[in-house]
């Protein structure tokens, strides 16, 4: 490990318990407009879990006694289930991705809705939380916004946690994060060793200052987290990044093949940053057993990236309004 990373781990890795709620509330009051917080949940068919997450945030962090969070926004990513209704019933503002920036037709993908969320939120701190989390604890939010409220030099904070793999009734205590361990961590260690201190580089729970997010390009799919870390390092430097231990994360696990497509998108995002301009073939072929033998199916790998929001005229208008 680089000496710089060892130093970073000693000074930029915290636990949620380091900053109790009363400290955060005082820091928020002192920060004024810079302390406004929007929580954003990207959601594609998450009716089973989105309501409880929204409800927990509202119950714990949006009360007269604990007014830490100013708004909770669910950006619907084309759900065909009752995600929008369940989220609205739980008290979230629900926005359909197609209703945001209609001039630019939405494509599928998680990064796409995170990018669009900048146009419909008002917080100067944006906190992204996956909508498929189970046994959700509001420390996921208060923990990661903490350093942004108390440390002016910090600009992006990722959650870190234990990741059990819970499938088919069995639990492997530290078995989760398969793409993280097989793809993202090796890529980061080999090509961007200054980012090797992140325990959960792909985690979907992170908070950042708007002033950083609006300057970043957003890969439209699952490359968004890796791209954001690499680009943030280049833009603001390692000491502006941090991580906070928030406990244990339980979520819905995707199939091996879906994770293969995620891995391809992440590799592609890394490759683009390693060799801007040189195109790899953006397709992935996978195999399923059928009576005739193994059948290939080929999928497009996300290649599109949205430009930094500061380059979008509608965003400048939204901020001026
Ligand atoms: O097209 C999509 C796909 C996903 N999601 C939402 O994004 C979140 C995370 O998606 P999920 O499929 O649960 O991702 P994971 O398999 O858990 O992948 C991990 O790794 C990804 C790659 O870094 C991150 O984007 C995820 O946040 C992180 O949890 C969930 O709320 C989804 O509903 C969308 O909004 N639109
Ligand atoms: O973050 C990851 O590595 C992928 O989302 C896979 O996570 P899982 O192995 O916990 O399903």
From TrEMBL:
Keywords: Glycosyltransferase, Magnesium, Transferase. It catalyses: an NDP-alpha-D-glucose + (2R)-3-phosphoglycerate = (2R)-2-O-(alpha-D-glucopyranosyl)-3-phospho-glycerate + a ribonucleoside 5'-diphosphate + H(+); (2R)-3-phosphoglycerate + UDP-alpha-D-glucose = (2R)-2-O-(alpha-D-glucopyranosyl)-3-phospho-glycerate + UDP + H(+). GO terms for molecular function: glycosyltransferase activity. It is an enzyme of class 2 (transferase). Its EC number is 2.4.1.266. It comes from the Bacteria. InterPro entries: Glyco_trans_2-like, Glycosyltransferase_2, Nucleotide-diphossugar_trans. NCBIfam families: PRK13915.1. Belongs to the glycosyltransferase 2 family. This is Glucosyl-3-phosphoglycerate synthase.
